[in-house]
């Protein structure tokens, strides 16, 4: 499969084929309109990656662990969007994590959390696709990797959104390319090196 890239963007037809890989228990509602997608981005303060936007325009997966961008509970969506940052803060508080590019860690836990929150307020938003699998929210980047994010245990899950659907829902573990390099994601790639 050719990776998603600016030269090989996800088309609506390809997105519909990805949605067809979902198990029968996942209800795929009609795709979101451009207006609906714009409202989501405005309300939640991020912009979808081009392929994520194309996917949601082709169909909206709903049910357990899928973020329902059309009719979802606002509190749940807030928690889902906060998950990556909250996970890092959990490790700052409970596991002594401190990013090497931040100022020296304050001695008090609450002070450390306050400083970390300041830094984390500036990092790129990671948007949930399904469960704790996330994609970079950047309308100007196509083909970034899907990350599996659980606190600071963050891994490259797959190379892009299309690979994600094949791996997660068809369990087709793609053979890793020995020299494959994942696209870097500011801040978040620190956890992946």
Bin the helical content.
25-40%
**Count of β-strands:** 6
Estimate nothing, just give the exact number of structural domains.
Answer: 1
Classify the secondary structure makeup into a structural class: alpha+beta
Strand order of the largest sheet: 3-4-5-6
Form type:
globular
The helix count comes to 6
End-to-end separation? 25 Å
What is the average of the pLDDT values?
93
Give the CATH topology. SMI1/KNR4-like
Q: Which stretches are poorly predicted, pLDDT < 50 over at least 5 residues?
A: none
* Gyration radius, in Å: 17 Å
Highest-level CATH class = Alpha Beta
Spell out the helices and strands N to C: HEHHEHHEEEEH
Sheet of most strands:
4 strands, antiparallel
CATH architecture: 3-Layer(aba) Sandwich
The portion of residues forming beta strands comes to 5-15%
List the keywords.
alpha+beta; SMI1/KNR4-like; 4-stranded antiparallel beta sheet; two-stranded antiparallel ribbon; 37% helix; globular
List the helices and strands and how they pair.
Elements: H1 12-19, E1 27-30, H2 34-44, H3 50-58, E2 59-62, H4 74-94, H5 109-120, E3 126-130, E4 133-136, E5 146-150, E6 153-158, H6 161-170
Antiparallel strand pairs: 1-2, 3-4, 4-5, 5-6
Structure description:
With 193 residues, this protein is of the alpha+beta class. It has one domain: 3-Layer(aba) Sandwich (SMI1/KNR4-like). Helices cover 37% and strands 15% of the residues. The strands form two sheets. The chain has a four-stranded antiparallel β-sheet. It has a two-stranded antiparallel sheet with strand order 1-2. Helix 4 packs across helix 5. It starts with 11 loop residues before the first helix and ends in a 23-residue tail after the last helix. The model has no long low-confidence stretch (mean pLDDT 93).
